[in-house]
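Let us work through a complete example step by step.
Step 1: write down the sequence.
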Amino acid sequence: MIKEAINSNKNLLILHFTVFIWGFTGILGALISVDAVQMVWYRVLIATITLFIYFKLSRTSLKVTRKQFLQFMLTGSIVALHWILFFHAIKVSTVSVTLVCLSSFTLFTAIIEPIIKKQRIQIPDIVIGLIIILGIYLIFKFESKYTLGIIFGLSAALASSLFGSINSVLVQKSDALVISFYEIMGAFLWITLYRLFDQSLFTEHFYLSHTDWLYLGLLGTICTALAYVAGVSVMRTITAFRVALITNLEPVYGILLAFIFFGTKEAMSIGFYLGAIIILGAVFLYPIYKKRSNI
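Step 2: predict the structure and record it as tokens.
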């Protein structure tokens, strides 16, 4: 019991650190000059190579069953979609708007996780999700010029909650590192097929600026390979919904970092901050409610 509690607390710390890194990905997304699809393609290429080198050096087996391989690769397509939608939302709006919209991840997970695990949907989970929707509505109302970014941000949250809930099941039977490797490799495969279809890959010249390569290197190694593995591994002891709640700290970290990096460019209306406060307040208060209700 004590060992389990220690492991749970350790995983919570790892998750918080991971979420901070995820908050920094928004900054990198705004700083890198290439478009969203191209950026994610480079990101997963670098992450796949990084993880492959790690597996070779650590002599870790990558052996999986055919069923597991297909599951991981298909989940990788959802991961790719999430990242493309996320970075595209940043390109057409701001880091702050995109990150706050990702808070709807909680509502989507409250619905999707019970369906995947064949469990009963918890009414309090839906209520907290609806409060978050209220916050998003205020952002829509006062930041209508970013409507397209908000739509892409919400779509990214839906995709994130879907693969997060799937991973909470997969990680119970497979190693988190192996899952991460195949899902990221799957993301690379699906984006490569898309880029072959739209023929953009045929004109890829790889002549990026030194700063773009630096930011892409950070994005692919620390913010993807390291963070993704950590995010999946903690799901052994933490439910997908609790992961979703803690993940909602990403806007806090990301918005603070955005102000540091971009200053007044990230300034929003009072309505935006009111909506953000509602969303984040719900996220912080809900775990307290859950803990007291279980006493």
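Step 3: interpret the result. The mean pLDDT is 82.
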